[in-house]
Amino acid sequence: MRKLVVLLALAVLAGCKEEEAHVEFVPRPVVSEIIQANPIEAREFTGTVAAVFETDLGFQAAGRMIRRPVSVGDVVTRGTVLAELDPADLENTRRAALAGVTAAEVRLETAQRTAERVRELAARGIASVSKQELAEQALSAAKAEQDRSQAVLLKAEDARSFATLVAPVNGVVTQAFAEAGTVVSSGQAVVRLAGTARREAVIDLPESAIEALGRNAAFDIRLRSSPTIRTSGRVSEIEPVADTATRTRRVHLELADQPEAMRLGALVLVRLTGGGEQIVSMPTTALIGSGQPPRVWRVSRPDGQVSAVPITVAPLDDGLLRVLSGVTPGDEIVIKGVNSLKDGQMVGERVQE
């Protein structure tokens, strides 16, 4: 009886092994995506209208400012008085310079008479050579002093004509640096004037958006308060230094035309309409661990074998990375469960996320 039980058990075990031998290994499916090249996302940014040329204006002479008839936001035309210096101070400076010229002329006349007398005495052998040299040196110094005093007088007379600061072009006062009663130095900024002849749109873009801009990138620009008022623009300048707080860089857009309603300071909506480069992107979850260089699992079809591929990436927005090298459009990469795979492992069919 015991032998019969043993034989039955062996028969059952043999049957199980035979069934196991017929079970095939089925690779697990993977969540993956096919790499594609797409144009930069047509995002909309808010910008402002600014002047192409903005200048700090100041007096060419020092003095006490007695009047500044303009305020921030005032629209001015060429020749409009922006500020004035106290003419009394400038007149006193001119008079002092004139007195200096008179004194220098008197000293020059004295030096000339002395030099002539010493020359006569030296010719008769009465005055020594050294005394004659001293007289000639004094005459040269007096001439130099007269020239200097004349230059001071000319500068003082010019300063009197600089007592009035006027607008060199049509524009808008965007900032005031000094109030009436302030003593200003020559060249010190009093007001900032933004010219209205040429305007531009300025926007702040993240680094990822700037990198994807093509050379001929074109923008549609609409007035935020009245979207029917619109124009187009192209990049004229990208500032090289990013803002330390927002990590964005300022982009200047040249306007195709100058709608009157797009005044300085007006808010505009800016959207890329063409000229953007084709970019290759992938989710950050596709990266294998945190090692360097970054790697992803590339799936070889139809066999389904995965291999680790080093790549070069740059940050994009919304959990995406821009792929610069390593994989190309058409490649299949694993984007989920990457840390559970091994190099050379076989995987099953592709499952979309």
The biggest beta sheet is recorded as: 6 strands, antiparallel, barrel
Number of domains as seen in the coordinates: 4
Rounded to the nearest angstrom, the distance between the terminal CA atoms is 60 Å
Largest sheet, spatial ordering of strands: 3-12-15-14-13-16
Q: Which structural category do the helix and sheet elements fall into?
A: alpha+beta
Strand content range: 25-35%
Helix coverage percent = 25-40%
CATH topology of the largest domain: Elongation Factor Tu (Ef-tu), domain 3
Count of strand segments: 23
Order of helices and strands: HEEEEEEEHHEEEEEHEEEEEEEEEEE
Low-pLDDT windows of residues: 18-23
Q: Tell me, what's the shape?
A: elongated
Looking at CATH, the homologous superfamily of the largest domain is Efflux pump adaptor protein, beta barrel domain
Mean pLDDT: 84
Radius of gyration: 42 Å
Q: What is the CATH domain class of the largest domain?
A: Mainly Beta
Count of discrete alpha- or pi-helical segments spanning 4 or more residues: 4
Query: What CATH architecture label of the largest domain applies?
Result: Beta Barrel
